[in-house]
From TrEMBL:
Belongs to the LysR transcriptional regulatory family. GO terms for molecular function: DNA binding; DNA-binding transcription factor activity. InterPro entries: HTH-type_LysR_regulators, LysR_HTH_N, LysR_subst-bd, WH-like_DNA-bd_sf, WH_DNA-bd_sf. This is LysR, substrate-binding. Residues 1-59 form the HTH lysR-type domain. Keywords: DNA-binding, Transcription, Transcription regulation. One of its GO terms (cellular component) is cytosol. The keyword DNA-binding applies. Pfam families: HTH_1, LysR_substrate.
């Protein structure tokens, strides 16, 4: 039988791809990890890792075990959380996979409040696309997903949703700052900073442009929200985002947010999602509740 210790050691090595780094994370000697991996290879009858000049790589068998180890260890952690719930200990860890645009205006203030209310909870936060989020929820790598334009699937359940209108966002001094509203035709005349076509927000913008008979050609195309904002802050072009994504910069007067014509562009749907077939711990339920409440108070 494979021991939990060996599985945990192997999972750490698989993530680090280095015995030395894994040993440092686990606070043990590298030889102790080597012994456990040797034992696993003996039990499974197959090599799991290959040592090379650039570190460790996984064999085909190692890749299979790594995927299973990650799921098994996360499931065991969830069992521990549920047992702690039975004892009323209010402990646990919540794994969230989110869109970058929800962090500053929604996620960060909500988790700060939750940390004050439940000081023994901890959080893992990953920044991913909506499609990556769906797979993370299914694999058990994420307890909660929070993103714009989440794809609809029978096994991914929207716990709460809200709609936010898009704005054109630019640096002070840009010609569009004098407008009370920006049309897609006007937007097309300016240098644009947009995400790539794999993002739901870009797809919604392209659908609206097609209906309006407009072609939007971005001068800058990047998936990184921080890069988009940095370009806009330097006067390089115009963003198309819900105001929540740039609330801090607008409050400081670094960026100006002008509404897009609501009749032209559909509202940005933001979804708080979970996997249908997984029991939720106290920590996850508490986090969902606070995030759902925060969603309903967002300015549209």
């Amino acid at each position: 039988m494979i021991s939990g210790r060996a599985l945990r050691y192997f999972d750490t090595v698989a993530r680090c791809r280095s015995l030395r780094q894994a040993a440092a994370q686990l606070h043990i000697a590298p030889t102790a990890i080597s012994r456990q991996i040797d034992l696993l290879e003996h039990q499974l009858g197959a090599p799991l890792i290959e040592r090379g000049p650039n570190g460790i790589s996984l064999t085909a068998a190692g890749e299979l075990l790594a995927a299973q180890a990650q799921r098994t260890l996360r499931d065991l952690e969830r069992v521990q959380e549920h047992i702690a719930d039975l004892k009323g200990l209010r402990t646990g860890r919540v794994s969230l996979q989110v869109a970058e645009g929800v962090v500053a205006g929604l996620l960060a203030p909500t988790l700060a409040k939750m940390g004050q209310r439940y000081p023994h909870l901890s959080f893992d936060i990953g920044i991913v696309s909506a499609s990556q989020m769906v797979e993370a929820l299914r694999r058990g790598d994420a307890d909660i997903g929070l993103s714009f334009f989440m794809p609809r699937h029978d096994d991914i359940v929207p716990f709460a949703s809200a709609e936010l209108h898009h704005h054109a966002v630019m640096a002070p001094g840009h010609p569009l700052t004098a407008a009370s509203e920006v049309s897609l035709h006007t937007l097309a005349e300016h240098r644009l900073i947009l995400p790539d076509e794999s993002y739901g927000a870009r797809q919604a913008l392209e659908r609206a442009a097609h209906r309006a008979g407009v072609t939007l050609i971005p001068t800058f195309k990047t998936a990184s929200l921080e890069t988009q904002k940095a370009l806009a802050l330097n006067g390089a072009g115009v963003l198309v985002l819900p105001p929540m994504a740039v609330a801090r910069e607008c409050q400081l007067g670094q960026l100006i947010s002008i509404p897009l014509a609501p009749s032209e562009l559909e509202a940005a749907r933001i979804d708080l999602c979970v996997y249908r077939h997984r029991q939720r711990s106290f920590a996850t339920e508490a986090c969902l509740s606070l995030l759902a409440s925060a969603l309903q108070t967002l300015p549209v």
